[in-house]
Amino acid sequence: MPSLTPMLGAMYIGVVLASSLYGVTSLQTYIYFARGPSDAKPVQSLVFFLWILNTLRIASVAAAGYTYMVTDFAHPAAVLQPTWTIFPAAVILVGLNNALVRGMFCFRIWRLSGKHWWIASSIALIVAVTFGITIAFSIVAHEFESWQQLDLPESSWMLSSSFATGMAGDILISTSLSVLLAMRKTGYRRSDNVVRSLIMYSVNNAVLSTTCGMLVLVTYLTAPANFAFLALYIIYPELILNALLATLNGRPALKKKMMTGGKERRATMDPIQASARLRESANHVVELCYLDSTMSEGTTLPAEGLRASDKTPYLCIRGGDVLWLGSVSLLVDLRCNLLAAMDGL
Question: What local confidence, expressed as pLDDT, does residue 137 receive?
């Protein structure tokens, strides 16, 4: 009879780590709704559904751990047989969770790319293939009579293919986000700093989950008998869901960073000395001041009275620092460009 230590040890470690990460996921979900999200109702509903799905998955793997380590602990033969809470329940829940999270990233990439279908469709195809292989594997694995059957050729190719395509999808998502955000650079120091922050934020969120997905594939291909991949497979959905929630919850701070502080001047613009009276509204939205060579103090105009098509030069200031010198249309374009980038995340 094969040793039970590798399988039970991997499941125990996976359940403990996944339960800890589930607390982080729950906190992130609470923060998302407590802040009053600006997302559409379908997006909010999907976030809540993902949390419910994740709760069911944790309950499923915890039930399997209790069955193996408590109920059937004195019956080694029973421990060698996969339970229905793993195959197919947990596998289906993992596949559905990962597909929905990647689908949300795919939708946001579609928005960020200006609704160009070719980028999003490539990612959507990989997501669909991964989900299909996962469901097929769960059906086949439901008939397993022993954990050792995971290493059989007729089932191992499906599991390894699912891991590989999932990892490819994660890499493509993070790469697409980085490239699309880099295309949002405007040549203005302050706005480009925000874009760089968005790129680093997106990459950092994806690094941990992508690394975990890669380790799942490597450990399964190199050492399937020690079940190290099982522990990683259990925590992987938590990491990918936390990456999505961290992206959603990080947008307010990034928008605040864009709207406040810092100096802004175009590198190709000649320095112009001008004074103007600072007028700032209660919600800290900077108003625009008309720039005239004969001005001594500056004539302040209400920002809401200006049209985006107005080509008159204006000076935008905050706390005595020059933030913008140019036309109203350029200012509006810059703000819309950065807000669209953050909303696309």
Answer: 94
